[in-house]
Amino acid sequence: MGRVSKRKAVRPNDMDCMDWMPVEIDNDEKLTLLSAVCQIVEVVRNSRYDSRIYDAAARPIAYIKDLLFLTEKQVVVYAIVMDMYYDNQISTFDIGRCLDISPLKAMTFSEDLEELCRRNYLAENTDEESTDKSYSVTKDAINSLQQNCAICFHSSKIRSAEDWFGALDKIISARCNRKIDYDTLCLRIENLVKQNTRLPMIKRFNTKASKLTTEEQMLFWWVCNMVVCAGYEAMTPDHFRKLYDTLAVHRTQRKSLELGSNGLIKHGLLRIASASEQNVKDSYELTPWVVKDMLAELELETATSSSKDIIDHTTITPKQLYYNEREQRAIDQLASLLQPERFAQVRDELQKQGFRKGFACLFHGAPGTGKTETVLQLARMTERNLMQVNISDIKSKWVGESEKNIKAIFTRYRKLVAESDVAPILLFNEADAVIGKRLEDVTRSVDKMENSMQNIILEEIEKLDGILIATTNLTCNLDHAFERRFLYKIEFAKPTVEVKSFIWQSMIAGLTPEDATTLASKYDFSGGQIENIARKSVVGRIISGEDISLNSLIAHCDTELIGNSVHRKIGF
Q1: CA distance linking residue 136 with residue 121, whole number of Å
Q2: Reported confidence tier of residue 453, pLDDT bands at 50, 70, 90
Q3: Per the count of CB atoms within 10 A, which of 188, 287, 400, 418 is most buried?
Q4: CATH class of the structural domain 12-147
Protein backbone atom coordinates (compact mmCIF):
# COMPACT_ATOMS: atom_id res chain seq x y z
CA MET A 1 0.00 0.00 0.00
CA GLY A 2 1.09 3.55 -0.68
CA ARG A 3 1.91 6.10 1.97
CA VAL A 4 -1.27 7.55 3.44
CA SER A 5 -1.06 11.33 3.72
CA LYS A 6 -2.60 12.97 6.75
CA ARG A 7 -2.38 16.41 5.20
CA LYS A 8 -5.52 18.37 4.59
CA ALA A 9 -6.58 18.27 0.95
CA VAL A 10 -6.76 21.54 -0.95
CA ARG A 11 -10.27 22.64 -1.83
CA PRO A 12 -10.29 24.32 -5.26
CA ASN A 13 -13.69 25.94 -4.69
CA ASP A 14 -12.32 27.80 -1.64
CA MET A 15 -9.24 28.87 -3.62
CA ASP A 16 -11.35 30.30 -6.43
CA CYS A 17 -13.11 32.56 -3.96
CA MET A 18 -9.85 34.21 -2.93
CA ASP A 19 -8.44 37.27 -4.71
CA TRP A 20 -4.63 36.98 -4.69
CA MET A 21 -2.45 40.05 -4.94
CA PRO A 22 1.35 39.96 -5.47
CA VAL A 23 3.45 40.53 -2.37
CA GLU A 24 5.86 43.42 -2.65
CA ILE A 25 9.50 42.50 -2.03
CA ASP A 26 12.59 44.60 -1.36
CA ASN A 27 14.28 45.02 -4.71
CA ASP A 28 17.15 46.92 -3.14
CA GLU A 29 18.22 44.02 -0.95
CA LYS A 30 21.55 42.47 -1.93
CA LEU A 31 20.68 39.06 -3.26
CA THR A 32 22.18 35.74 -2.29
CA LEU A 33 20.86 32.34 -3.16
CA LEU A 34 19.26 32.09 0.27
CA SER A 35 17.67 35.56 0.21
CA ALA A 36 16.41 35.03 -3.35
CA VAL A 37 14.74 31.76 -2.31
CA CYS A 38 13.06 33.52 0.63
CA GLN A 39 11.75 36.32 -1.59
CA ILE A 40 10.37 33.92 -4.20
CA VAL A 41 8.62 31.79 -1.59
CA GLU A 42 7.09 34.91 -0.06
CA VAL A 43 5.67 35.89 -3.46
CA VAL A 44 4.42 32.52 -4.66
CA ARG A 45 2.89 31.21 -1.40
CA ASN A 46 -0.91 30.93 -1.80
CA SER A 47 -0.62 32.60 -5.22
CA ARG A 48 -2.65 29.88 -6.96
CA TYR A 49 0.28 29.96 -9.41
CA ASP A 50 -0.87 33.25 -10.85
CA SER A 51 1.25 34.31 -13.83
CA ARG A 52 1.93 37.63 -12.11
CA ILE A 53 4.40 35.93 -9.77
CA TYR A 54 7.05 36.02 -12.48
CA ASP A 55 6.83 39.79 -12.69
CA ALA A 56 6.57 40.26 -8.94
CA ALA A 57 9.65 38.10 -8.27
CA ALA A 58 11.47 38.89 -11.51
CA ARG A 59 14.72 39.97 -9.84
CA PRO A 60 15.27 36.99 -7.51
CA ILE A 61 14.04 34.55 -10.20
CA ALA A 62 16.54 36.00 -12.69
CA TYR A 63 19.29 35.80 -10.07
CA ILE A 64 18.75 32.07 -9.40
CA LYS A 65 18.12 31.33 -13.08
CA ASP A 66 21.50 32.76 -14.05
CA LEU A 67 23.33 31.22 -11.11
CA LEU A 68 21.93 27.69 -11.35
CA PHE A 69 21.13 27.54 -15.10
CA LEU A 70 17.45 26.71 -14.51
CA THR A 71 14.27 27.82 -16.29
CA GLU A 72 11.95 30.30 -14.55
CA LYS A 73 9.49 27.55 -13.74
CA GLN A 74 12.25 25.34 -12.36
CA VAL A 75 13.43 28.26 -10.23
CA VAL A 76 9.98 28.52 -8.62
CA VAL A 77 9.91 24.79 -7.89
CA TYR A 78 13.49 24.96 -6.60
CA ALA A 79 12.61 27.78 -4.19
CA ILE A 80 9.56 25.92 -2.88
CA VAL A 81 11.40 22.63 -2.24
CA MET A 82 14.39 24.41 -0.67
CA ASP A 83 11.96 26.03 1.74
CA MET A 84 10.96 22.47 2.74
CA TYR A 85 14.54 21.18 3.10
CA TYR A 86 13.65 19.60 6.46
CA ASP A 87 11.05 17.28 4.86
CA ASN A 88 12.39 14.05 3.42
CA GLN A 89 9.14 13.25 1.60
CA ILE A 90 8.40 16.24 -0.60
CA SER A 91 5.82 15.54 -3.32
CA THR A 92 3.84 17.42 -5.97
CA PHE A 93 1.06 17.56 -3.36
CA ASP A 94 3.32 19.69 -1.11
CA ILE A 95 4.07 22.07 -3.97
CA GLY A 96 0.31 22.33 -4.61
CA ARG A 97 -0.26 23.19 -0.95
CA CYS A 98 2.31 25.97 -1.08
CA LEU A 99 0.91 27.47 -4.25
CA ASP A 100 -2.68 26.81 -3.16
CA ILE A 101 -3.59 24.83 -6.28
CA SER A 102 -5.27 21.48 -6.84
CA PRO A 103 -3.26 18.22 -6.60
CA LEU A 104 -3.99 17.52 -10.24
CA LYS A 105 -2.60 20.87 -11.38
CA ALA A 106 0.41 20.39 -9.12
CA MET A 107 1.31 17.24 -11.08
CA THR A 108 2.44 19.53 -13.92
CA PHE A 109 5.60 20.16 -11.87
CA SER A 110 6.70 16.50 -12.03
CA GLU A 111 9.15 17.08 -14.88
CA ASP A 112 10.68 20.03 -13.06
CA LEU A 113 11.20 17.90 -9.97
CA GLU A 114 12.87 15.24 -12.13
CA GLU A 115 15.16 17.88 -13.60
CA LEU A 116 16.18 19.05 -10.13
CA CYS A 117 17.00 15.42 -9.37
CA ARG A 118 19.18 15.30 -12.46
CA ARG A 119 20.99 18.39 -11.22
CA ASN A 120 21.50 16.76 -7.80
CA TYR A 121 19.41 19.32 -5.91
CA LEU A 122 16.83 16.65 -5.09
CA ALA A 123 17.08 12.92 -4.50
CA GLU A 124 14.19 10.69 -5.40
CA ASN A 125 13.12 8.39 -2.57
CA THR A 126 12.90 4.70 -3.37
CA ASP A 127 9.88 3.43 -1.49
CA GLU A 128 8.50 0.37 -3.28
CA GLU A 129 5.37 0.39 -1.14
CA SER A 130 4.47 3.93 -2.11
CA THR A 131 2.53 4.74 -5.28
CA ASP A 132 3.51 8.44 -5.13
CA LYS A 133 6.96 9.79 -5.87
CA SER A 134 8.61 11.75 -3.10
CA TYR A 135 11.86 13.67 -2.91
CA SER A 136 14.32 15.03 -0.41
CA VAL A 137 16.74 17.93 -0.64
CA THR A 138 20.34 16.72 -1.01
CA LYS A 139 23.23 17.76 1.21
CA ASP A 140 24.93 19.21 -1.86
CA ALA A 141 21.88 21.44 -2.46
CA ILE A 142 21.97 22.71 1.13
CA ASN A 143 25.72 23.34 0.86
CA SER A 144 25.29 25.24 -2.39
CA LEU A 145 22.56 27.35 -0.77
CA GLN A 146 24.81 28.21 2.16
CA GLN A 147 27.84 28.85 -0.04
CA ASN A 148 25.81 30.84 -2.58
CA CYS A 149 26.89 28.80 -5.59
CA ALA A 150 25.62 26.13 -7.94
CA ILE A 151 26.31 22.49 -7.17
CA CYS A 152 29.71 22.24 -8.72
CA PHE A 153 32.29 19.50 -8.44
CA HIS A 154 34.92 22.01 -9.51
CA SER A 155 35.81 23.08 -6.03
CA SER A 156 38.74 23.36 -3.70
CA LYS A 157 38.09 19.74 -2.71
CA ILE A 158 39.01 18.46 -6.18
CA ARG A 159 42.66 19.18 -6.63
CA SER A 160 43.82 15.94 -8.19
CA ALA A 161 42.75 13.00 -10.31
CA GLU A 162 42.27 11.02 -7.10
CA ASP A 163 39.79 13.61 -5.79
CA TRP A 164 38.03 13.61 -9.14
CA PHE A 165 37.54 9.84 -9.09
CA GLY A 166 36.22 10.14 -5.54
CA ALA A 167 33.45 12.38 -6.88
CA LEU A 168 32.88 10.09 -9.88
CA ASP A 169 32.57 7.05 -7.63
CA LYS A 170 29.76 8.73 -5.68
CA ILE A 171 27.85 9.40 -8.91
CA ILE A 172 28.31 5.84 -10.16
CA SER A 173 27.36 4.41 -6.75
CA ALA A 174 24.10 6.37 -6.94
CA ARG A 175 23.46 4.83 -10.35
CA CYS A 176 24.29 1.31 -9.14
CA ASN A 177 21.83 1.76 -6.27
CA ARG A 178 19.21 3.01 -8.74
CA LYS A 179 18.96 6.40 -7.03
CA ILE A 180 19.48 8.18 -10.34
CA ASP A 181 18.59 7.25 -13.91
CA TYR A 182 20.93 7.02 -16.89
CA ASP A 183 20.20 10.55 -18.12
CA THR A 184 21.02 11.98 -14.70
CA LEU A 185 24.22 9.96 -14.63
CA CYS A 186 25.22 11.42 -18.00
CA LEU A 187 24.47 14.97 -16.89
CA ARG A 188 26.43 14.67 -13.67
CA ILE A 189 29.47 13.07 -15.27
CA GLU A 190 29.45 15.60 -18.10
CA ASN A 191 29.37 18.42 -15.54
CA LEU A 192 32.14 16.77 -13.55
CA VAL A 193 34.29 16.68 -16.68
CA LYS A 194 33.46 20.24 -17.81
CA GLN A 195 34.04 21.75 -14.39
CA ASN A 196 37.51 20.22 -13.96
CA THR A 197 39.20 20.87 -17.29
CA ARG A 198 42.26 22.17 -15.47
CA LEU A 199 43.21 18.63 -14.42
CA PRO A 200 45.87 17.09 -16.71
CA MET A 201 43.82 13.89 -16.83
CA ILE A 202 40.75 15.71 -18.21
CA LYS A 203 42.88 17.66 -20.68
CA ARG A 204 44.21 14.39 -22.09
CA PHE A 205 40.73 12.86 -22.20
CA ASN A 206 39.34 15.88 -24.07
CA THR A 207 41.78 15.28 -26.93
CA LYS A 208 39.69 12.22 -27.77
CA ALA A 209 36.29 13.15 -26.33
CA SER A 210 35.04 14.85 -29.52
CA LYS A 211 35.40 11.54 -31.37
CA LEU A 212 33.16 9.70 -28.90
CA THR A 213 29.41 9.60 -28.46
CA THR A 214 27.87 10.42 -25.08
CA GLU A 215 27.18 6.71 -24.53
CA GLU A 216 30.80 5.82 -25.27
CA GLN A 217 32.08 8.51 -22.92
CA MET A 218 29.85 7.24 -20.11
CA LEU A 219 31.02 3.66 -20.69
CA PHE A 220 34.64 4.82 -20.65
CA TRP A 221 34.31 6.59 -17.30
CA TRP A 222 32.40 3.62 -15.91
CA VAL A 223 35.27 1.29 -16.86
CA CYS A 224 37.87 3.76 -15.51
CA ASN A 225 36.02 3.90 -12.21
CA MET A 226 35.97 0.09 -12.01
CA VAL A 227 39.74 0.07 -12.52
CA VAL A 228 40.65 2.98 -10.25
CA CYS A 229 38.15 2.56 -7.42
CA ALA A 230 37.30 -1.16 -7.53
CA GLY A 231 40.66 -2.58 -8.62
CA TYR A 232 39.47 -4.41 -11.74
CA GLU A 233 41.93 -5.11 -14.57
CA ALA A 234 39.54 -6.52 -17.17
CA MET A 235 35.76 -6.38 -17.42
CA THR A 236 33.07 -8.27 -19.28
CA PRO A 237 29.90 -6.54 -20.55
CA ASP A 238 28.09 -7.94 -17.50
CA HIS A 239 30.16 -5.59 -15.36
CA PHE A 240 28.56 -2.53 -16.96
CA ARG A 241 25.01 -3.86 -17.21
CA LYS A 242 23.91 -1.53 -14.39
CA LEU A 243 25.00 1.46 -16.43
CA TYR A 244 21.96 1.28 -18.71
CA ASP A 245 18.23 1.60 -18.13
CA THR A 246 17.29 -1.00 -20.75
CA LEU A 247 18.73 -4.28 -21.97
CA ALA A 248 18.46 -3.06 -25.56
CA VAL A 249 21.00 -0.28 -25.03
CA HIS A 250 23.31 -2.68 -23.20
CA ARG A 251 23.13 -5.17 -26.07
CA THR A 252 23.89 -2.43 -28.61
CA GLN A 253 27.02 -1.35 -26.76
CA ARG A 254 28.07 -4.96 -26.26
CA LYS A 255 27.68 -5.73 -29.96
CA SER A 256 29.69 -2.65 -30.99
CA LEU A 257 32.52 -3.75 -28.69
CA GLU A 258 32.50 -7.27 -30.12
CA LEU A 259 32.60 -5.92 -33.70
CA GLY A 260 35.28 -3.36 -32.86
CA SER A 261 33.08 -0.52 -34.16
CA ASN A 262 32.77 1.11 -30.72
CA GLY A 263 34.59 4.44 -30.55
CA LEU A 264 36.45 3.36 -27.42
CA ILE A 265 38.04 0.52 -29.39
CA LYS A 266 38.62 2.54 -32.57
CA HIS A 267 40.28 5.47 -30.81
CA GLY A 268 42.53 3.48 -28.48
CA LEU A 269 40.81 3.79 -25.11
CA LEU A 270 39.66 0.19 -24.65
CA ARG A 271 40.93 -3.07 -26.07
CA ILE A 272 40.12 -6.74 -25.85
CA ALA A 273 41.83 -8.04 -22.73
CA SER A 274 45.12 -9.68 -23.68
CA ALA A 275 45.32 -11.62 -20.41
CA SER A 276 42.31 -13.31 -18.92
CA GLU A 277 43.06 -15.95 -16.33
CA GLN A 278 39.36 -16.72 -16.19
CA ASN A 279 39.58 -17.64 -19.89
CA VAL A 280 36.83 -15.14 -20.70
CA LYS A 281 36.81 -14.16 -24.37
CA ASP A 282 34.66 -11.02 -24.32
CA SER A 283 36.55 -9.07 -21.68
CA TYR A 284 37.97 -5.59 -22.11
CA GLU A 285 40.65 -3.46 -20.48
CA LEU A 286 42.04 0.05 -20.62
CA THR A 287 44.78 0.53 -23.19
CA PRO A 288 48.37 1.35 -22.15
CA TRP A 289 47.81 4.97 -23.34
CA VAL A 290 45.02 5.43 -20.81
CA VAL A 291 46.93 3.78 -17.96
CA LYS A 292 50.36 5.27 -18.60
CA ASP A 293 49.50 8.68 -20.09
CA MET A 294 45.98 9.80 -19.33
CA LEU A 295 45.85 8.37 -15.79
CA ALA A 296 49.58 8.76 -15.17
CA GLU A 297 49.00 10.84 -12.03
CA LEU A 298 47.27 7.89 -10.33
CA GLU A 299 50.25 5.57 -10.89
CA LEU A 300 47.99 2.59 -11.41
CA GLU A 301 49.52 -0.80 -10.81
CA THR A 302 49.68 -2.69 -14.09
CA ALA A 303 50.99 -6.06 -15.10
CA THR A 304 54.37 -4.41 -15.65
CA SER A 305 54.61 -2.87 -12.19
CA SER A 306 52.51 -4.71 -9.64
CA SER A 307 53.51 -8.36 -9.93
CA LYS A 308 55.93 -9.96 -7.50
CA ASP A 309 57.42 -12.16 -10.21
CA ILE A 310 58.48 -9.17 -12.32
CA ILE A 311 62.11 -8.19 -11.80
CA ASP A 312 62.85 -4.58 -12.72
CA HIS A 313 66.15 -4.45 -14.62
CA THR A 314 67.19 -1.34 -12.67
CA THR A 315 67.19 -3.37 -9.42
CA ILE A 316 69.64 -6.01 -10.68
CA THR A 317 73.07 -5.65 -9.09
CA PRO A 318 75.94 -5.60 -11.62
CA LYS A 319 78.13 -8.66 -11.30
CA GLN A 320 81.30 -9.70 -13.09
CA LEU A 321 80.91 -13.19 -14.58
CA TYR A 322 83.68 -15.35 -16.01
CA TYR A 323 83.17 -17.85 -18.82
CA ASN A 324 85.17 -20.25 -20.90
CA GLU A 325 86.14 -18.81 -24.28
CA ARG A 326 83.38 -20.56 -26.25
CA GLU A 327 80.66 -19.54 -23.80
CA GLN A 328 81.91 -15.94 -23.76
CA ARG A 329 81.53 -15.66 -27.55
CA ALA A 330 77.99 -17.04 -27.49
CA ILE A 331 76.87 -14.79 -24.62
CA ASP A 332 78.44 -11.69 -26.22
CA GLN A 333 76.57 -12.45 -29.43
CA LEU A 334 73.29 -12.88 -27.56
CA ALA A 335 73.85 -9.68 -25.54
CA SER A 336 74.43 -7.76 -28.78
CA LEU A 337 71.27 -9.22 -30.33
CA LEU A 338 69.12 -8.28 -27.33
CA GLN A 339 70.07 -4.60 -27.42
CA PRO A 340 66.71 -2.88 -28.13
CA GLU A 341 67.64 -1.21 -31.44
CA ARG A 342 69.40 -4.27 -32.84
CA PHE A 343 66.60 -6.55 -31.66
CA ALA A 344 63.99 -4.43 -33.46
CA GLN A 345 66.02 -4.54 -36.69
CA VAL A 346 66.43 -8.31 -36.55
CA ARG A 347 62.72 -8.87 -35.84
CA ASP A 348 61.70 -6.69 -38.79
CA GLU A 349 64.05 -8.52 -41.12
CA LEU A 350 62.83 -11.92 -39.94
CA GLN A 351 59.23 -10.84 -40.49
CA LYS A 352 60.04 -9.71 -44.04
CA GLN A 353 61.57 -13.10 -44.75
CA GLY A 354 58.51 -14.88 -43.38
CA PHE A 355 60.27 -16.30 -40.32
CA ARG A 356 59.08 -16.35 -36.71
CA LYS A 357 59.96 -13.16 -34.82
CA GLY A 358 60.31 -14.63 -31.32
CA PHE A 359 63.57 -15.72 -29.72
CA ALA A 360 63.70 -18.82 -27.52
CA CYS A 361 67.04 -19.62 -25.87
CA LEU A 362 68.21 -22.56 -23.79
CA PHE A 363 70.95 -22.27 -21.17
CA HIS A 364 72.02 -25.75 -20.09
CA GLY A 365 74.84 -27.14 -18.00
CA ALA A 366 75.94 -28.24 -14.57
CA PRO A 367 74.53 -26.58 -11.45
CA GLY A 368 76.30 -23.44 -10.23
CA THR A 369 77.80 -22.52 -13.61
CA GLY A 370 76.06 -19.14 -13.80
CA LYS A 371 73.07 -19.82 -16.03
CA THR A 372 70.52 -17.85 -13.99
CA GLU A 373 72.95 -15.05 -13.14
CA THR A 374 73.75 -14.69 -16.82
CA VAL A 375 70.07 -14.16 -17.59
CA LEU A 376 69.89 -11.47 -14.90
CA GLN A 377 72.97 -9.67 -16.24
CA LEU A 378 71.67 -9.86 -19.81
CA ALA A 379 68.42 -8.27 -18.63
CA ARG A 380 70.33 -5.51 -16.85
CA MET A 381 72.64 -4.78 -19.79
CA THR A 382 69.81 -4.71 -22.36
CA GLU A 383 67.42 -2.80 -20.03
CA ARG A 384 64.77 -5.51 -20.13
CA ASN A 385 62.59 -6.48 -17.19
CA LEU A 386 62.27 -10.15 -16.30
CA MET A 387 59.09 -12.17 -15.85
CA GLN A 388 60.27 -15.15 -13.82
CA VAL A 389 58.17 -18.31 -13.90
CA ASN A 390 57.99 -20.41 -10.75
CA ILE A 391 57.65 -23.96 -12.05
CA SER A 392 56.26 -25.23 -8.74
CA ASP A 393 53.36 -22.76 -9.00
CA ILE A 394 52.37 -24.10 -12.40
CA LYS A 395 51.66 -27.69 -11.50
CA SER A 396 48.41 -28.49 -9.76
CA LYS A 397 46.92 -31.70 -8.47
CA TRP A 398 43.62 -30.77 -10.12
CA VAL A 399 42.96 -32.04 -13.62
CA GLY A 400 43.20 -29.26 -16.18
CA GLU A 401 44.51 -26.59 -13.78
CA SER A 402 48.17 -26.97 -14.75
CA GLU A 403 47.32 -26.47 -18.42
CA LYS A 404 45.36 -23.31 -17.55
CA ASN A 405 48.29 -22.03 -15.50
CA ILE A 406 50.65 -22.46 -18.45
CA LYS A 407 48.27 -20.64 -20.80
CA ALA A 408 47.82 -17.84 -18.27
CA ILE A 409 51.60 -17.33 -18.10
CA PHE A 410 51.92 -16.82 -21.84
CA THR A 411 48.81 -14.63 -22.16
CA ARG A 412 50.13 -12.48 -19.34
CA TYR A 413 53.54 -12.28 -20.97
CA ARG A 414 51.91 -11.10 -24.20
CA LYS A 415 50.23 -8.36 -22.19
CA LEU A 416 53.58 -7.36 -20.72
CA VAL A 417 55.11 -7.15 -24.19
CA ALA A 418 52.20 -5.00 -25.40
CA GLU A 419 52.51 -2.62 -22.44
CA SER A 420 56.30 -2.33 -22.48
CA ASP A 421 58.45 -0.10 -24.65
CA VAL A 422 61.16 -2.76 -24.47
CA ALA A 423 60.04 -6.40 -24.57
CA PRO A 424 60.76 -8.16 -21.26
CA ILE A 425 62.40 -11.57 -20.96
CA LEU A 426 60.28 -14.56 -19.97
CA LEU A 427 62.46 -16.78 -17.78
CA PHE A 428 61.69 -20.45 -17.15
CA ASN A 429 64.31 -21.19 -14.51
CA GLU A 430 65.18 -24.84 -13.82
CA ALA A 431 62.73 -25.87 -16.52
CA ASP A 432 63.59 -29.59 -16.47
CA ALA A 433 60.09 -30.46 -15.25
CA VAL A 434 58.27 -28.85 -18.18
CA ILE A 435 60.53 -29.38 -21.21
CA GLY A 436 61.36 -33.07 -20.76
CA LYS A 437 60.59 -35.86 -23.19
CA ARG A 438 56.92 -36.47 -23.82
CA LEU A 439 55.63 -39.84 -22.74
CA GLU A 440 54.13 -42.39 -25.12
CA ASP A 441 51.11 -44.64 -24.60
CA VAL A 442 50.13 -42.82 -21.43
CA THR A 443 47.15 -43.93 -19.40
CA ARG A 444 47.54 -42.09 -16.10
CA SER A 445 45.94 -38.67 -15.83
CA VAL A 446 49.18 -37.24 -14.40
CA ASP A 447 51.15 -38.36 -17.46
CA LYS A 448 48.50 -36.96 -19.78
CA MET A 449 48.74 -33.65 -17.94
CA GLU A 450 52.54 -33.59 -18.40
CA ASN A 451 52.22 -34.20 -22.14
CA SER A 452 49.45 -31.62 -22.44
CA MET A 453 51.55 -28.99 -20.66
CA GLN A 454 54.51 -29.65 -22.92
CA ASN A 455 52.34 -29.42 -26.04
CA ILE A 456 51.04 -26.04 -24.88
CA ILE A 457 54.59 -24.75 -24.28
CA LEU A 458 55.71 -25.98 -27.70
CA GLU A 459 52.76 -24.24 -29.33
CA GLU A 460 53.39 -21.01 -27.41
CA ILE A 461 57.11 -20.97 -28.29
CA GLU A 462 56.13 -21.44 -31.94
CA LYS A 463 54.05 -18.23 -31.91
CA LEU A 464 56.22 -16.34 -29.42
CA ASP A 465 56.63 -12.62 -30.09
CA GLY A 466 59.24 -11.81 -27.48
CA ILE A 467 62.18 -13.40 -25.68
CA LEU A 468 62.08 -16.67 -23.74
CA ILE A 469 65.07 -18.12 -21.90
CA ALA A 470 64.89 -21.53 -20.23
CA THR A 471 67.60 -22.90 -17.94
CA THR A 472 68.12 -26.56 -17.19
CA ASN A 473 70.69 -28.85 -15.59
CA LEU A 474 69.58 -31.89 -17.57
CA THR A 475 69.70 -31.97 -21.36
CA CYS A 476 69.68 -35.73 -21.74
CA ASN A 477 65.95 -35.73 -21.05
CA LEU A 478 65.16 -32.83 -23.41
CA ASP A 479 62.46 -33.54 -25.98
CA HIS A 480 63.67 -33.18 -29.59
CA ALA A 481 60.71 -30.91 -30.38
CA PHE A 482 62.04 -28.43 -27.84
CA GLU A 483 65.55 -28.62 -29.30
CA ARG A 484 64.23 -27.44 -32.66
CA ARG A 485 62.36 -24.50 -31.11
CA PHE A 486 65.31 -23.06 -29.19
CA LEU A 487 67.16 -20.79 -31.60
CA TYR A 488 70.12 -20.28 -29.27
CA LYS A 489 71.44 -23.15 -27.15
CA ILE A 490 74.36 -22.28 -24.89
CA GLU A 491 76.11 -24.90 -22.81
CA PHE A 492 77.61 -23.74 -19.51
CA ALA A 493 80.54 -26.05 -18.79
CA LYS A 494 82.51 -26.22 -15.58
CA PRO A 495 85.06 -23.41 -15.71
CA THR A 496 88.69 -24.08 -16.65
CA VAL A 497 91.48 -23.63 -14.09
CA GLU A 498 92.24 -20.20 -15.52
CA VAL A 499 88.60 -19.06 -15.31
CA LYS A 500 88.22 -20.53 -11.81
CA SER A 501 91.29 -18.60 -10.73
CA PHE A 502 89.68 -15.35 -11.89
CA ILE A 503 86.48 -16.28 -10.04
CA TRP A 504 88.40 -16.96 -6.81
CA GLN A 505 90.10 -13.57 -7.01
CA SER A 506 86.85 -11.74 -7.83
CA MET A 507 85.07 -13.36 -4.87
CA ILE A 508 87.77 -12.92 -2.20
CA ALA A 509 89.50 -9.57 -1.90
CA GLY A 510 93.25 -9.73 -1.39
CA LEU A 511 93.68 -13.30 -2.63
CA THR A 512 96.95 -13.59 -4.54
CA PRO A 513 97.02 -15.01 -8.08
CA GLU A 514 99.20 -17.87 -6.84
CA ASP A 515 96.75 -18.88 -4.08
CA ALA A 516 93.83 -18.50 -6.48
CA THR A 517 95.53 -20.84 -8.96
CA THR A 518 96.24 -23.33 -6.17
CA LEU A 519 92.57 -23.43 -5.15
CA ALA A 520 91.40 -23.57 -8.76
CA SER A 521 93.67 -26.52 -9.49
CA LYS A 522 92.94 -28.43 -6.29
CA TYR A 523 89.12 -28.10 -6.28
CA ASP A 524 86.79 -28.74 -9.21
CA PHE A 525 84.25 -26.19 -8.03
CA SER A 526 81.62 -24.32 -9.99
CA GLY A 527 81.18 -20.57 -9.65
CA GLY A 528 78.30 -21.17 -7.26
CA GLN A 529 80.44 -23.33 -5.00
CA ILE A 530 83.27 -20.80 -4.98
CA GLU A 531 80.75 -18.15 -3.93
CA ASN A 532 79.73 -20.42 -1.03
CA ILE A 533 83.35 -20.57 0.16
CA ALA A 534 83.67 -16.79 -0.07
CA ARG A 535 80.53 -16.30 1.99
CA LYS A 536 81.72 -18.75 4.65
CA SER A 537 84.99 -16.84 4.91
CA VAL A 538 83.19 -13.56 5.51
CA VAL A 539 80.96 -15.17 8.15
CA GLY A 540 83.99 -16.73 9.87
CA ARG A 541 85.79 -13.39 9.98
CA ILE A 542 82.76 -11.71 11.56
CA ILE A 543 82.13 -14.43 14.18
CA SER A 544 85.65 -15.46 15.23
CA GLY A 545 87.82 -12.72 13.75
CA GLU A 546 89.85 -15.27 11.76
CA ASP A 547 92.00 -13.94 8.93
CA ILE A 548 91.28 -15.12 5.42
CA SER A 549 94.26 -17.24 4.46
CA LEU A 550 94.97 -20.07 2.08
CA ASN A 551 94.73 -22.59 4.93
CA SER A 552 91.38 -21.27 6.14
CA LEU A 553 90.04 -21.32 2.57
CA ILE A 554 91.21 -24.92 2.10
CA ALA A 555 89.43 -25.86 5.33
CA HIS A 556 86.22 -24.27 4.05
CA CYS A 557 86.66 -26.04 0.70
CA ASP A 558 86.97 -29.41 2.42
CA THR A 559 83.71 -28.86 4.33
CA GLU A 560 82.03 -27.95 1.04
CA LEU A 561 82.78 -31.41 -0.32
CA ILE A 562 80.49 -34.34 0.29
CA GLY A 563 82.17 -37.71 0.63
CA ASN A 564 85.58 -35.94 0.85
CA SER A 565 86.12 -36.35 -2.91
CA VAL A 566 87.72 -33.39 -4.63
CA HIS A 567 86.47 -34.57 -8.01
CA ARG A 568 82.84 -35.04 -7.07
CA LYS A 569 80.65 -32.70 -9.19
CA ILE A 570 78.03 -31.12 -7.04
CA GLY A 571 75.79 -28.08 -7.06
CA PHE A 572 74.41 -26.06 -4.19
Answers
A1: 9
A2: confident
A3: 188
A4: mainly alpha
58-81, pLDDT tens digit by residue? 999 999 988 887 899 999 999 999
CA–CA dist 110, 116 (Å, integer): 10
More confident residue, 92 or 563: 92
* Count of alpha carbons within 13 angstroms of residue 510, beta-carbon side: 8
Query: What is the pLDDT of the chain when averaged over all its residues?
Result: 82
The C-alpha atoms of residue 568 and residue 570 are separated, in whole angstroms, by 6
Using CA atoms, how far residue 568 sits from 101, 522, 534, 537, in Å, is 105, 12, 20, 22
pLDDT of 567:
43
Closest CA relative to residue 532, chosen from 505, 554, 560, 511: 560
CATH class belonging to 313-318+333-492? alpha beta
Contact 205, 138 (CB under 8 A): no
Q: Are 245 and 182 in contact (CB under 8 A)?
A: yes
Residue 444 near residue 399, CB atoms below 8 Å: no
Cα–Cα distance measured from residue 530 to residue 239, given in angstroms and rounded to the nearest whole number: 56
CA distances from 332 to 325, 339, 493 (A): 11, 11, 16
Please say whether the dihedral angle defined by the alpha carbons of residues 133, 139, 145 and 146, taken in this order, is positive or negative.
Answer: positive
What pLDDT score does 369 carry? 84
Which residue type does 125 have? Answer: N
188-to-65, 169, 193, 330, 368 alpha-carbon distances in Å: 19, 12, 9, 62, 63
Mean pLDDT of 511-524: 86
Average pLDDT over residues 330-342: 92
pTM score, two decimals? 0.48
Which runs of E-coded beta strand occur in 98-255?
122-124, 135-137
Q: How far apart are CA 108 and CA 234, in angstroms?
A: 45
In this prediction, residues 135-152 reach a mean pLDDT of: 84
pLDDT band at 2 (very low <50, low <70, confident <90, very high): very low
Tell me if residue 197 falls in helix, strand or coil: coil
Q: Terminus-to-terminus CA distance in the chain, angstroms?
A: 79
CB 331 within 8 A of CB 370: no
Confidence of residue 499 (pLDDT cuts 50, 70, 90): confident
Query: Which residues make Cβ contacts (< 8 Å) with residue 231, sequence separation at least 6?
Result: none
Domain ranges of the chain: 12-147, 161-298, 313-318+333-492, 497-560
Q: CA 75, 76, 81: angle at the middle one, nearest 5?
A: 95
